[in-house]
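FW: tagging you since you asked about this chain on Friday. Here's the raw sequence from the shared folder, copied in full. Didn't touch anything.
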Amino acid sequence: MTGTEGNQFFCFTQLLGQEKAKLLLSRSLAADRVPHAYIFRGPEGVGKRLFARGVAAAVNCRDIKRLGACGVCSSCKKFRSMNHPDFLVVSPEKGVIKIDQIRRLTKELSYPPYESAMRVVVLEDVQTMRREAANSLLKTLEEPPENNLLILTAEASQDILATLTSRCQVVPFAQLSIDDTVAILIRQGVERQAASLMARLSEGSPGKALLFQKTEMIELWRKVVSFLSDSAVDRDRDVGDLLSLAEKIAALKEELPSLLGLLRIWLRDLLLGDVHDSADKQDGDIHRKSWNSNDLFDKLQAIDRAEKELSRNCNRTLVCEVLLFKLQ
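HL: got it, structure written out here
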């Protein structure tokens, strides 16, 4: 955990964005009226898990004069090391929360907290919970054991049982602004230009954006843009380079739609005359091609066709080869 992440972890009120969630939780903590269970529901990668950890630290902070967590008391130090005995996290196993996990949790909740006034349990991605596991959890939510707070996180686009939401206080989370997303990515060490592109493609989801970085998709995007926009490139002479790039693009597999999204952003920027975030500002010694609006519309349509073909399970490499020829 970096220093920046640590500061955010200990003070959820200083997280960028999610003002409604901050207000709801701050009021509950200030009034000492924390319910037995929350559901943090919103898009993927917008800070629900980090927020939950911040709330857990705040609930058990020894500095009673402070709203949030101090970061220096004995409880906060244990949260910092991720070694607090009264903080539990239940995550999906192979994509699913299983009934055995809920049974183990129920047994743990039957004992009092080890050292804190409140044990906090975070159940991540409860939309993955199998029905039998959800029904087992309902018994705990209906008769919550004393001195325990359950925080469930859920992805907003997927359904969860209404019986779960009816027994929890729902806290809505929203997509972050592009500016806030860029700021978060820069804190994580992402270069500003890449951060701006990733923020736009992820539509305000820092978590998604960081996944793009892990796949080195941004660097491949830059290579593709540099190749396509270089006027010195000849379609017939350099066909080998084009086919090699197409093979690398196809190898992205699940990340391929995101790369196509980046190419769409680049072309739209060119169409609007807004290239401040595009790779064509790099490599100043390369003479860039100049496309008119009709050319750019045609290239955008080529990306649309490629996406449709990929959705029909057409040969990935062939689709990418044809696309690069169309984008030349």
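FW: The domain at 3-172 is CATH 3.40.50.300 (Rossmann fold).
HL: agreed, and The two ends are 43 Å apart (CA to CA).
FW: great, closing this out.
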